Amino acid sequence: MKITEDILEEYRELTTRYVNASQKLRELLPCVTELSKAEKLPQARVLKQLLRDFDKAEEEIEAALAGFRRIRHRLLGLI
User: What's the whole-model pTM score?
Assistant: First the structure.
C-alpha cells in the first residue's frame, strides 16, 4: 500500500532527523557547561558561534517536528 510505505519512509527520515538533533544537543553540552562555570563572559566571537550552533540544532528539531506532523496527518487520513 503506497500510503503506508510513505509513512514508513517518513518515519525513517524522522528518526534520522531526531538522531541528528540529539547529537547536536550533546555536542553543545560541553560548551554550555563551560559557559556556566566561566568566571567572566567569553568573547563575542565564541558566543556568536554558540548561537549559530543552537540555530542548527533548532533547525533539526523543527524538521523532525514537521516530519512528526506529516506522519500524524497521514495516519489521521487513514481513519
Answer: 0.74
